[in-house]
Every structure is written in structure tokens, then in C-alpha cells.
Write a structure and sequence with these properties.
- Helix 5 packs across helix 14 (326-338) and helix 6 (129-136) packs across helix 12 (248-263).
- The model is unreliable at 1-29 (pLDDT under 50).
- By secondary structure, the chain is mainly α.
- 31% of the residues lie in helices and 8% in strands.
Length: 428
């Protein structure tokens, strides 16, 4: 494990810039860090933590990419329940808490792609399948969220599914929207529920648009955060019960891992953090007292229909949002993380009385036998390793040391949609 960088002092940093994100050049040979054999110099190149250590650039907080869901209508309930997303849908129906970009950035600065964990003075920590299940209430077992990715005719597929076809680009101009629709377009056409007395087919189309927006804008946003990808449509257009058969929880974690692997090497002033930032934010609040807001009692759950039970995230419903200068808070959070001791960390937050007294959604613990499994997480073209063997204290076990090292593979990190254009059957 790497030692923590020196305290982050803005008055001791130079203003020399090293540019934006680093090119992940395929075929580049891995070299072990001469000081910390666990780490790879390939990832040190441009890593935010390395820049903080060397004090070669003033880094600014990343911008978390997350979108509040579309307006909810109770007529969607039956369809969203059949899709397996009702626990999460109930959780996010109201407005989401403000994402604390300064705190999340200070944490991501300490993320290492080699181990898929945060390297902190208290030890390694990471987001696991347990956290996904307990916080979001998403299934972590089932079919892999993958399949064929073909951009051809994606506007026609949107039209068939939702009844509204996105417009073609003006004749003679280059199509700049090849990855999906803008969030403004989906809000314009489906930002309001269907009218009273609408036919069942119309309600279902609005429910699928609501789910598409939740999946693409809340669970799987990328670093740009401006486009709702058509990539999810082939799965979301299936029968509602088939949609529920996919392992959405493991895919969400794979996507978050990849986004953090990229964000920890983004150094531009306007760089962003993709992935489910809400999951990362609640994970941080539950375990680390850095940037943790005050919270009041969550109140009554308020839903009595089948399948509507809360997750751990419901406990953070009523919080006092943190305000103030983001740069100042970023510096403070970084210094606090550098002083974090193991006694400051809540290693097993889900074993407290407050949670034992809750009636949690059954999805939270349905596949608990997978929480400590070392396995690959799949999300279309992404394969990211889940390595709970590195963070056994998060499960109440003694951490073995040294841990058997499993490389997360530069080759796998090189695979993305930019480098693999065209139609790809990723399931095959």
C-alpha cells in the first residue's frame, strides 16, 4: 500500500499544468513502481495523487455527473416493479441530495486502478457488491449487462420504443449526436407524466423513458454527462421481467470503477467524475467522517405497496447540504484524509442497531454470499475486477497480509467505446 501524500497545501503548489487526461496507449509495458512494488508507474503518469505529492500543479475539484430522475407518476409503479428497479425508484423519487464534489474528488485522488481501492493512511478501502446491494437495492446476481452495440439506426430504435423519434441532423452536416439523445430532449418529451386517461401503451412508453433516464443518467453517466446513451435500449426494450433478470448492481459497480480509474488521471480545470456518484457519496458518508453532513431522522417510509421497502440510503434522506468555497473545502478534505486513522473509520456500518431495526428491502441481502467473491464485473465492453480480498476489514474479518495480488490489467482498461468503434457483440 502506498503511503499518503504530504498534506495538501495550496500555498506550496506551483501553477505548472500537465494538461488533461492521459492517453491509455495499448501495448505499453507495465513497470513496477520502484518505491511501492504494488503500484505501476503506468498509472502514476498523470495520476492526481502523484501530482499532489510532487506539487507540480494546482488541482481543482472534479464535477460529479448525476441527473435527478424525471418526474414520477404512480402509474409507472407496476412496470418499474416488474423490471426490478422499484426499491431504487422509490429512493430517488424526490430530489437527490447535493453531491459534494470536493469530498468525492479528495477520495478519488487516492484511488488506484491497479487494486480498485482507495489507498488511505487507515488502509485500503473500496466500494463492494455489499455496498451496491445495501445502498441502492439493485440485484448483484443474474445475467451480465452486455450485448450487441451497434450505432446504426439508433434513432429508429428510440422511435419504436418510445413513440418519438429523435430528429436527424440537418442535411449536409455531420451527425454530432452518434451516442444518444441529449438530456434536454428526453426531458422535453417525457419530463411530464402522460395525461389522465392515457392508454396503457402510452403509460408504458413513459415508464420506459423514465427507466432509460434513470439507468443512463443516474447509474451509468460518463464523464461528459450530456448524453443519454442508446447503448441500454436493447436490454430496456425487452419484457419487464427480462429486464429484472440482469445483474444491474454488478454492472453499476463496474461502471463506477472504470469512471474512477479514468477520473483519478484527469487534471483539467473542468474535469468530471462519472459513474453513480450517489452510491460513492453515501458509501463515503457511511464509512468515513470526512465531509459527512449532519442528518436528521429520515421520517416515515411512506409507501405501502408490494416491493416498496427502503435501503440504507434512505437514512440519508434528510441531510444538511454542505456549502462553501469548493476549492477551500477540497483542500480541507484532502488534509483530513491524510490524517485518517483506522479508529476513525466505520469498517462495518451495516451492522449497527439503526439498520438492524429497519425493515430493509429483501434485495439488499438477497445474494450476500457474493459479497466477498473475487470476480470480474461486466458492463457491456467493461470488465473490472471486484477484489474484496483487499478490504476484509469491511466485512468484519482480519485482513490477510500480504494479499495475493491480482492485476486489474492495463489491456482491459484500454477497451472502451472510443477504441472499439462499430458493431460489437460484447456478450459473445
Amino acid at each position: 500500500m502506498a503511503t499518503a501524500p504530504p498534506p495538501f497545501r495550496s500555498d506550496r503548489l506551483s501553477t505548472k499544468s500537465r494538461g488533461g487526461s492521459v492517453d491509455f496507449a495499448p501495448g505499453r509495458k507495465m513497470a513496477v513502481n520502484p518505491q511501492y512494488p504494488l503500484l505501476e508507474t503506468f498509472y502514476d503518469d498523470g495520476h492526481r495523487g502523484k501530482i499532489l505529492e510532487e506539487r507540480t500543479q494546482i488541482l481543482r475539484p472534479l464535477r460529479p455527473r448525476t441527473h435527478n430522475p424525471l418526474v414520477w407518476d404512480d402509474r409507472y409503479t407496476e412496470f418499474i416493479r416488474r423490471s426490478g428497479f422499484l426499491p431504487l425508484a422509490r429512493l430517488v423519487q424526490g430530489r437527490l441530495p447535493m453531491m459534494d464534489g470536493a469530498a468525492l474528488t479528495a477520495l478519488v485522488d487516492r484511488w488506484r486502478p491497479e487494486t480498485h481501492s482507495f489507498h488511505l493512511p487507515a488502509g485500503e478501502m473500496t466500494v463492494t457488491l455489499e455496498d451496491v446491494a445495501m445502498i441502492l437495492g439493485l440485484p448483484i446476481d443474474g445475467r451480465a449487462v452486455t450485448g450487441n452495440i451497434s450505432p446504426a439506426g439508433w434513432r429508429d430504435r428510440v422511435g419504436l420504443l418510445l413513440g418519438v423519434r429523435p430528429p436527424d441532423p440537418p442535411e449536409g452536416t455531420k451527425d454530432r449526436k452518434t451516442t444518444g439523445v441529449s438530456f434536454g430532449w428526453i426531458s422535453q418529451h417525457f419530463g411530464h407524466p402522460p395525461p389522465p386517461g392515457a392508454a396503457d401503451g402510452v403509460i408504458q412508453r413513459h415508464a420506459r423513458a423514465w427507466l432509460w433516464h434513470l439507468v443512463g443518467g443516474f447509474l451509468f453517466p460518463d464523464g461528459s454527462g450530456n448524453t443519454l446513451s442508446w447503448m441500454w435500449l436493447d436490454i430496456l426494450s425487452q419484457q419487464w421481467e427480462v429486464v429484472a433478470a440482469y445483474s444491474w448492481g454488478s454492472a453499476t459497480l463496474a461502471w463506477l470503477y472504470r469512471q474512477m480509474c479514468e477520473a483519478c488521471r484527469r487534471t483539467g480545470d473542468s474535469s468530471s467524475l462519472g459513474g453513480c456518484c450517489y452510491l460513492l457519496q453515501v458509501w463515503m458518508w457511511e464509512r468515513i467522517p470526512v465531509g459527512r453532513p449532519d442528518r436528521g431522522p429520515p421520517g416515515d417510509w411512506g409507501f405501502n405497496d408490494e416491493g416498496s421497502l427502503p435501503t440504507v440510503a434512505f437514512l440519508w434522506k434528510n441531510i444538511l447540504n454542505v456549502y462553501g468555497n469548493p476549492m477551500r473545502r477540497y483542500i480541507d478534505y484532502s488534509n483530513e484524509l491524510d490524517c485518517l486513522l483506522d479508529s476513525h473509520v466505520t469498517w462495518t456500518p451495516y451492522r449497527r442497531d439503526e439498520i438492524d431495526e429497519m425493515e430493509l428491502s429483501p434485495v439488499c441481502t438477497e445474494h450476500s454470499e457474493l459479497w466477498r467473491a473475487n470476480l470480474p464485473l461486466i458492463c457491456f465492453f467493461l470488465v473490472e475486477y471486484h477484489l474484496p480480498c483487499r478490504v476484509m476489514r469491511q466485512f468484519g474479518y482480519l485482513q490477510a497480509c500480504p494479499v495475493e495480488h491480482v492485476s486489474t490489467s492495463q489491456e482491459l482498461h484500454n477497451i472502451d467505446r472510443r477504441s472499439q468503434r462499430g458493431s460489437k457483440n460484447w456478450e459473445q
